[in-house]
Write a structure and sequence with these properties.
The complex is a heterotrimer. By secondary structure, chain A is mainly alpha-helical. Helix content of chain A is 74%, strand content 0%. Chain A folds into 2 domains: 68 residues; 262 residues, ABC transporter involved in vitamin B12 uptake, BtuC. The radius of gyration of chain A is 21 Å and the shape is globular. Chain B folds into 2 domains: 136 residues, Rossmann fold, CATH 3.40.50; 200 residues, Response regulator (Rossmann fold). In chain B, the strands form 4 sheets. Chain B has a 6-stranded parallel beta sheet with strand order 2-1-3-4-5-11, with helices on both faces. A 5-stranded parallel beta sheet of chain B has the order 9-8-6-7-15, with helices on both faces. Classes of the chains: A mainly alpha, B alpha/beta, C alpha/beta. Chains in contact: A-B, A-C. Chains A and B meet through helix 1, helix 2, helix 3 and helix 12 of A and helix 1, strand 2, helix 3 and helix 4 of B.
């Protein structure tokens, strides 16, 4: 009885919170737009029109949604473990490098589907190693994961530039526009009229389900949560806080690496300097907006992806800078932090 | 808390009732075309030159309507790809797409493959030559080496120290070609007009890494230009899309230094520091656009690789001359007359890419009396002997 | 002169101070002694405005004063030297000295510092960084800052904890100098030795009341008796079970963690023993326990626990040693996790968890241990007593060694009795319990053997039926010399 009442209560509250956050963010942005003399309705129409008005557009949204979701899933692991994995950008980059590394090798005997699968695996390994590296720096070197991650982001950015302008440069000339395109066989299969590879969507779904399962229905997930809540008590329960954190970093990094792999194999078909598209940082906002809970993450990712894809309409149709979508995303997250913060204070005061 | 919520909600509803969207797209005999600009549409450089040519098309062809997106580069628009943008422009009715950066090469090719009914103009690419392009994709470029020769000529005519610097973007065949052309122009002025020994002329190239400043990724062009002026170079030619070199020159002049700069790309580029501007080699995309869009509208589109030069009859003609040099207001009579004579010689068939010329490493490029072919110039593999700076 | 009249302070239902009267004259050193929780710290905090009193009057030179904040107290010339100096370790001596000065005049402050150093015989280099100094030297700096700020009433809280003998001498000389200058000094301490040698008057507090006051010359035995209540003559410790195989062996173990560390601790604890550890907080009991469980590594010496080195058994299914820390919520439990999740983590080893997993077990535990809550209650919503009961319910069946800090802290009498009944029942024939407690009565009633820690050493080690409250009290206050190890 008690249990049921408790659950119902929290679901109701989550809905109220969601509504409050939405209203607050929408209100602030609309107010800002009205003050600037821009019609919020026109903006809203352009954004929706640019993201949901046709399957083609929506499939573009999905190409953004998938890597964003993968990064979000990765971050759920690290946030659960009480770690601020700001190094996720670097992990995406290393995943992309891992996938490119494999696809650049000459395996004439292997069929393309096997190569692509291997490349995705490589991208997972690349991201996982980079994430684990930040974890080892924390455990062994006492480097806070925020600073370690930030440093590794710069290293990853330098590394990818060096690869593109150096060893992996285009035939003839080095170019900031990336490495040579892969041959058509090594692009992930995309049906006619689609812009997103069905396999990428499946990877996104599977990783999300796996994340939900691991975090909420396994002992491992509970241990990660426990370490995140109180690393001091963990040893008394036979849990190693450092190793658990490291695992979370590796898994989180691996999922981020998959996002990088998809960027290479499905979206750009080559390695480019800004391969991560900032999805790592964006995913940090997603997970914060989700209040570190699992279920809202894919929906918020979809919302953010719609904003990102739809925002391109703003300069075309309305001659408004598309960075407005960033303002909307930021307003959402700030509203969320505000609402959750107020709730917490209220609870503390009560 | 509750009253705030109510207030906010009311506000939102109010805002949405206000000004309903009215984005009517009228159909009819319109010919919408899309323009993808790598930089901002008002960059006083490469992208603005394209933007203004696009605007001119709306006047040249009644019914032509430009849809443009600027700042199309992965740094400014993370996650947005060329095929995605092309899809969108096509869904808005665009029948022809112009992409203005070498960077967009792969994306344009992919988009051309996806939209065989739409025509594509890729500016500065060479997929037609290499045979990678689909039939609906053409390349367009201007023979800017003429403009750069004139810029180098004016620079050498002006320089007192004989030290001329070239602020280069990234290293590729195109940028090697253009910096070499500037060097040849400068050498011509120095040895043939001023009759000074070639060994007294210093020509240094520094590459910042991209067409414009990307903090943290490229060298800062402001700093590079500043260090040129501080180490005795008194004229800096800009090879990048933005005007840092000119701005720095303007500041140094205020500090009492006798230095100059030559910007690039856009006719109006001198405005940021007219007293330091010796002139600007610029592109005028109207002729190229007019030809290609005209063919597309009439239905006789042909795939081609169009490498248009100046109209020697009137190099500043908007209608006909793709490449030109706009002389700066501060040029003295000596420079003006020299430039006029030089232009006449170029119009008369003078080609500075004529032997004997050696590459930077001393290996022979052209034997005495031999003139470079278009292909040799397009794919220049190294800088030339006499130039300082990295070739690769 | 400072006069405290009928001071009361209540925290909720707890009466921390119940009508305390104290009069400290100018030009004297006034000692305040008492066991842990007697109310010494609370009284000093009232005086320095750190907490507000519930009732009573404070007179300063016969004028009533009101201290609502530490700033008020500073204005009135009341300053306190805390156990842990309140300073900026990254800054230099002179920067710290200047911090909090009324005016910013480095040259002048430098002269003042040099003068004060000269007066007290301290040698502090103005440029050295604080983190390079010892606790004693930081204390000296703090003292000089207080004097510079015009402190007339100086309060010292356990000033000799963690400082060397030489520094102690310097400090005492400085205090004498200040006293001769007419300052009023209040010295809070549990070390009878230093109190009786330094003070002119001593006030004894117990359970928030003044239970004795003496002037020089002091009667130590009377002071002891006052501190530790009328000591019961008899006690009935639990019957000692078979003196079995060693469960925990320390051999010359040294550690520098904490205020006192561990100094060459050698001790054997055998199966069947219930060992109670007494001593002032921070005398080494906590370090001893944490070293035993493996949370802390000793700097030297050998430890054998159940025949093995004391490492935390990570990921093992059976845990033979458990540790129940004093601060349950921040060291022993996971706030944000519910009761059921704690049971899953503590027991069982299934990989996949359903929403039913552990439900039965935690419901059983809730019933068996009378925990007021349900399996979905968040741990931080449980009361202290229920948190302790939960911790007890998490002890696995196979346990052989139970280590506990303040096992009944925050529990009412009934819960405490219930807890001990349960613990004795859980003590396997091949197992032992080692616990630290500030409550002597608890030790005498529950333990078979008592260890008294003083400054990182074990001063007393005896079966509870062969010692007295008197002897233990003397050991706690450092009045006896180290006895040879029992057993």
């Amino acid at each position: 009885m008690n249990v049921k009442r408790f659950t119902n209560f929290s679901i109701t509250q989550a809905t109220t919170n969601g509504f409050l956050i939405g209203a607050l963010a929408l209100g602030t942005v609309s107010l800002l737009l009205v003050l600037l003399g821009i019609s919020p309705a026109a903006i809203g129409y352009a954004l929706i029109n640019g993201s949901l008005s046709s399957w083609l557009k929506f499939s573009h949204v999905l190409t953004i949604w998938t890597p964003l979701l993968l990064c979000g899933c990765g971050l759920l692991f690290t946030f659960r473990a009480g770690l601020w994995n700001i190094g996720i950008e670097g992990q995406v980059v290393l995943g992309a490098i891992g996938a490119t590394f494999l696809l650049r090798q000459e395996y004439s005997t292997l069929p393309p589907w096997a190569l692509i699968s291997l490349a995705m695996f490589c991208s997972f390994v690349g991201g996982a190693l980079w994430g684990a590296f930040a974890g080892v720096l924390k455990n062994r070197g006492g480097v806070n994961e925020i600073f370690g991650g930030l440093g590794l982001n710069f290293v990853a950015q330098g590394f990818i530039l060096w690869l593109i302008l150096g060893p992996w440069k285009r035939a003839g000339i080095a170019s900031m526009s990336g490495t040579d395109l892969f041959t058509r066989e090594l692009w992930m299969f995309t049906p006619h009229g689609w812009r997103v590879a069905p396999a990428a969507l499946i990877i996104g779904f599977v990783v999300f389900l796996l994340t939900g399962l691991l975090l909420s229905a396994t002992r491992f997930g509970l241990q990660i949560k426990a370490v995140g809540k109180n690393p001091l008590a963990a040893p008394l329960f036979g849990i190693r806080p450092d190793m658990t954190g490291l695992c979370a970093m590796a898994i989180g990094g691996g999922f981020a690496g998959l996002a990088g792999g998809l960027q290479v194999i499905c979206v750009y078909h080559r390695l480019i300097p800004s391969i991560s598209s900032g999805y790592g940082y964006l995913a940090l906002l997603v997970v914060m907006l989700a209040n570190y809970k699992i279920l809202p993450v894919p929906f918020i990712c979809l919302f953010f992806a719609c904003l990102a894809a739809g925002s391109i309409q703003l300069p075309i149709v309305l001659q408004i800078d598309s960075s407005l979508s960033g303002v909307i995303q930021g307003a959402c997250v700030l509203s969320a932090l505000l609402v959750h913060g107020l709730r917490k204070r209220k609870k503390g005061a009560a | 808390m509750k009253s705030i919520t109510t207030l906010v909600t009311t506000l939102v509803v109010f805002c949405f009732l206000l000004l309903p969207a009215s984005n009517a797209f009228s159909a009819g005999d319109e010919y919408p075309f899309g323009l993808l600009l790598v930089g901002p549409a008002n960059d006083h450089g490469w992208s603005q030159a394209h933007f203004e040519a696009g605007q001119a098309m709306e006047k040249v062809f009644p019914g032509a309507k430009m849809l443009y997106i600027d700042k199309v580069n992965p740094a400014d628009r993370a996650g947005i790809t060329i095929p995605m943008l092309v899809d969108d422009l096509v869904s808005k009715g665009a029948k022809l797409i112009i992409a203005n950066s070498d960077d967009m090469k792969d994306g344009v090719r992919e988009a051309a493959m996806m939209h065989p009914d739409v025509k594509f103009i890729h500016v500065s690419g060479d997929d037609v030559i290499t045979g990678k392009a689909e039939a609906n994709l053409s390349n367009l470029m201007g023979r800017m080496y003429y403009g750069k020769m004139m810029a180098g000529f004016v620079a050498a005519m002006t320089s007192k120290t004989g030290k001329i610097a070239y602020l280069g973007p990234l290293i590729n065949a195109e940028t090697r070609r253009l910096s070499a052309a500037a060097y040849l122009g400068a050498r011509y002025a120095w040895t043939k007009v001023l009759k000074k020994p070639a060994s007294d002329l210093h020509f240094k190239v520094s590459w910042i890494g991209f067409w414009f400043n990307i903090p943290g990724v490229t060298s800062d062009p402001t700093l590079v230009a500043g260090s040129f002026f501080d180490s005795g170079y008194d004229v800096v030619l800009s090879g990048i899309d933005t005007t840092e070199a000119l701005v720095v020159a303007g500041q140094k002049r205020k500090d009492g230094k006798d230095v100059y700069a030559i910007p690039y790309d856009f006719k109006g580029a001198c405005v940021s520091a007219p007293d330091a501007c010796l002139g600007v080699p610029y592109f005028n995309w109207v002729p190229g656009y007019t030809k290609m869009i005209g063919q597309a509208i009439k239905g006789n589109w042909q795939q081609e690789f169009l490498w248009l030069g100046p109209d020697w009859k009137d190099i500043n003609s908007v209608k006909t001359s793709t490449v030109s040099f706009e002389a700066g207001n501060i040029l003295g009579d000596k420079q003006k007359n020299g430039l006029a004579a030089f232009t006449k010689e170029l119009a008369g068939g003078l080609n500075l890419f004529t032997g004997p010329l050696n590459f930077q490493d001393g290996s022979p490029f052209l034997a005495a009396g031999v003139t470079a072919t278009d292909d040799q110039m397009w794919n220049l593999p190294q800088l030339l002997e006499g130039m300082e700076g990295a070739s690769k | 002169m400072i006069e405290l009249i009928n001071i009361h302070k209540t925290f909720g239902k707890v009466q921390a101070l119940q009508g305390v009267n104290l009069k400290a004259k100018a030009g004297t050193i006034h000692g305040v002694i008492g066991e842990n929780g007697a109310g010494k710290s609370t009284l000093m905090k009232v005086l320095t405005g750190f907490i507000t009193k519930t009732g009573g009057t404070i007179l300063h030179n016969s004028v009533e004063i009101v201290c609502n904040s530490p700033a008020d107290a500073t204005r009135m010339g009341i300053g306190m030297l805390y156990q842990e100096p309140l300073d900026f370790p990254q800054l230099s001596v002179i920067d710290n000295f200047m911090a909090g000065a009324d005016d910013f005049s480095p040259a002048q402050q430098r002269t003042t510092l040099a003068k004060l150093c000269d007066t007290f015989g301290f040698s502090l280099l103005p440029e050295s960084r604080l983190e390079e100094l010892t606790v004693g030297e930081r204390q000296q700096l703090e003292l000089m800052r207080l004097i510079r700020n015009g402190t007339k009433i100086l309060i010292l809280d356990e000033p000799t904890a963690g400082i060397s003998e030489k520094q102690q001498e310097l400090l005492f000389t400085a205090l004498q100098t200040l006293k001769d200058d007419g300052a009023t000094i209040l010295l809070v301490s549990h070390k009878l030795e230093e109190v009786t040698s330094l003070c002119d008057t001593v006030t004894v507090l117990r359970q928030g009341k003044v239970v004795g006051e003496q002037h020089r010359p002091f009667q130590r035995d009377d002071l002891l008796k006052a501190m530790f209540d009328t000591l019961p003559e008899h006690n009935s410790p639990p019957e000692k079970k078979n003196n079995g195989s060693p469960v925990l062996e320390f051999n010359a173990v040294c550690s520098t963690v904490g205020r006192s560390g561990l100094k060459e601790i050698s001790i054997d604890i055998h199966a069947g023993e219930v060992v109670g550890m007494a001593g002032v907080d921070g005398s080494g009991q906590s370090v001893f326990l944490k070293t035993s469980i493996g949370l802390l590594q000793p700097e030297s010496g050998n430890i054998s626990r159940l025949g093995q080195p004391p490492n935390i058994s990570f990921g093992k299914k059976s845990r033979k040693t458990v540790f129940l820390p004093a601060d349950r919520l921040s060291e022993g439990l996971f706030p944000g996790l519910n009761v059921r999740e704690h049971h899953i983590l503590a027991t069982g080893n299934s990989v996949f968890l359903t929403s039913q997993k552990g439900l039965k077990k935690s419901q059983q535990a809730i019933d068996a241990y009378s925990i007021r809550g349900n399996p979905d209650t968040m741990i931080e919503d449980l009361s202290g007593g229920n948190q302790q009961r939960l911790l007890l319910s998490l002890i696995p069946d196979e346990v052989q060694l139970i280590l506990m800090e303040n096992p009944t802290r925050g529990l009412d009498v009934q819960s405490a009795a219930w807890t001990w009944k349960h613990l004795h029942k859980r003590l396997a024939d091949n197992g032992a319990i080692v616990f630290a407690s500030p409550d002597l009565e608890e030790i005498m009633e529950q333990a078979t053997r008592v260890l008294v820690f003083y400054n990182g050493e074990i001063l007393l080690d005896k079966p509870t039926d062969k010692t007295t409250y008197q002897e233990i009290s003397r050991a706690i206050t450092g009045q006896i010399s180290k006895s040879p190890s029992h057993s």
